[in-house]
Amino acid sequence: MNNKVSIIGAGMTGATTAHWLAEREVADLVLVDIIEGMPQGKALDLQESLPVVGKDVQVIGSNSFEATAGSDIIVITAGLPRKPGMSRDDLLSANAEIVSNSTRQSLKYSPEAIFIVLTNPLDTMAYLTMKVGGLPPERVIGQAGILDSARMRAFVAMELGVSVENINCYVLGGHGDDMVPLVRHSNVAGVPLNEMLPKDKLDAIVERTRKGGGEIVSLLKTGSAFYAPGAAVAQMVESILKDKNLIVPAAAYMQGEYGLKDIFFGVPVQLGRDGAVKIIEYKLNEEELAALNNSAEAVKQTIAALSSLVEF
Ligand SMILES: NC(=O)c1ccc[n+]([C@@H]2O[C@H](COP(=O)([O-])OP(=O)(O)OC[C@H]3O[C@@H](n4cnc5c(N)ncnc54)[C@H](O)[C@@H]3O)[C@@H](O)[C@H]2O)c1
Question: Does the global pTM surpass 0.85?
Answer without folding.
Answer: yes
